[in-house]
Amino acid sequence: xxxxFHLAIILLVxxxxxxxxxxxxxxxxxxxxxxxxxxxxxxxxxEVSRNGMIAATDKLSAEIGVDIxxxxxxxxxxxxxxxxxxxxxxxxxxxxMGGGFMLIHLADEDKQVVIDYRETAPAAAHRDLYLDDRGExxxxxxxxxxxxxxVPGTVAGLIYALENYGTMSLxxxxxxxxxxxxxxxxxxxxxxxxxxxxxxxLRADEAARKIFFKPDGGFYRLGDTLVQQDLGNTLTxxxxxxxxxxxxxxxxxxxxxxxxxxxxxxxxEDLASYEVKEREPLRxxxxxxxxxxxxxxxxxxxxxxxxxxxxxxxxxxxxxxNSAAYIHRLTEVMKLAYADRSKYLADTDFTPxxxxxxxxxxxxxxxxxxxxxxxARPSVDIAPGAHxxxxxxxxxxxxxxxxxGNAVSNTYTLNFSxxxxxxxxxxxxxxxxxxxxxxxxxGYANAFGMVGGETNKIEPRKRPLSSMTPTMVFKDGxxxxxxxxxxxxxxxxxxxxxxxxxIDFDMNIATAGMEARIHHQWSPDQLRLxxxxxxxxxxxxxxxxxxxxxxxxxxxxxxxxxxxxxxLLGATDPRRPGGWVARx
Length: 584
Ligand code: GLY
Description:
Helix content: 25-40%
Distance between the termini: 49 Å
Strand order of the largest sheet: 1-20-19-15-14-9-8
Bound molecules: glycine
Number of strands: 21
Number of helices: 23
Radius of gyration: 25 Å
Strand content: 15-25%
Structural class: alpha+beta
């Protein structure tokens, strides 16, 4: 009581105590209280920095990339260093023998390019490669054999990016990864967990067993050191000989010997003739923001623009975030996009894809007009039921921004976690099983339940259709948000909802990535809801005719950096362990 009395007297006599006047150089309370970037109404806060930032899936590799920035490298140098480093520290998806898409923004030229380093089918591959005598798909051969491997693009893609848009030498950006491979990586919880989950597959391959298990056969545990001598030697050959260190010489010979001994298809000629494609990005406009995305053979760009175009006709903010009315519109739009995906999308170097039509506002208006705002439309009423190829959730994504305003959004993969689980002896490299992203039997489902059309059939040298969607959003002509995710077919809807959360619902990037998400991919006709969508909302959706199911979580996680008012923000969504924002 006495204390309150004293405080009242003090405030009466010295009202300035409540709000001291600001002295030169010292901000006033009102100024300090101003929340210019990070709004406290949000559920999670991003990391903050002024110089450079990488949001990635693994601490060691993200820090290697940021160290390159600290040493004066640009965002591309850092992205290439992180890409090679993940092959050592995050072997489930980081890779030398996979492929992906890198979206680059060059601040000086105000230009964006897509580097398509997606794998290609070997020359000996053909439409019915995986069909057995009865015309059934042999899933073992499709996903877990030497024939599952497509010609890898990662090394060519990273070298292409560095040579054309980086500033440092290949030796400089590879040095930390080589050191990490020889000296060993400290096993993280995420690595321990994944090695155990995929233990059976990795143990079955002699070369993989030698690397990923202790000499006594036991698992590597949190805090142990995992040394990868063979991988260190392979990276050294790449550092010394560039493309030839991988697509020729000893490395190529080891890959092809292993293929020849195991009925594999990749030849020396396949490796030597692998080509990176630099592609013009796709651009969409959504509520005044420019969204920049990869074109086919990624399907993400086409369908994110298509879905945003349709959604732009609704006032989503007024419906309330994750309300039944909002989720209903989102779901109906997703179904339309994924039905088109199964029919039209493929490698445009082989098949004409109506990209302009699919991303046009005229088409979006037509599709919007077909949506019933009260009732769910069964998928079979949108297009005849069909099966889709399974797409792995085990890709990895990282986003980079440097102090000069350059940015990189990179997604790459081996397809499944640790690819097919087969290692090329003496190289430390796992084979991808990316051939599974083709339609093994057009019209039938892939392993993720997605239907692949005739357009995505296997053809020699063709790139399989992908969902990888490295994304950038520009505000007033300047890069604002760089994002992307792993997750196969779920990538597209995860990125879409992250954009909607940030743009329509004004969430900061950390909250935008972590809010509960939904997923519908037309086939199967099932609306997946993450926990966090309320049971009441679920009941309303069911009453509208949606076939809902609560999933523990959608198997993806977005990694985002953003630039706001001159400050870099970074966030990794918590759906997967180990995500890390490195900054300086
Ligand atoms: N393998 C997964 C993807 O390309 O989307």
